[in-house]
Amino acid sequence: MFTNKTGTGLSTEVQNHSLYKGASPRLPVMAKFAMTIGTTPTITMVLQGLRTADETWIQLATATRTVAGTYYLHADVPKKCRRYRLNITANTNVTVTSASIGIGTVED
Hints:
Layout lengths: L8 E2 L3 E2 H4 L9 E23 L4 E10 L3 E7 L5 E23 L5
Antiparallel strand pairs: 1-6, 2-6, 3-4, 3-5, 3-6
């Protein structure tokens, strides 16, 4: 999705059927992103889904972070979304070193 991304913008889109063979559209969706930071950092990451009924991008989960690390965004069962993307809407002195989207949730 993203590798060493600075600034704002959209990731590439991911199709549900390519995330997990045989995955049900009723499973939760998760995004994972890792970041490094500079001085006075902030970033807002939004997990979006394309609603198939009207081809509208909807916000499924959002997070604002100010500390380097690895983070997860979880969305409960999406409302009939088959494509997903990440959107960085604010970024000050943050580099997203990696980001991905998958089906399911993180287990301890």
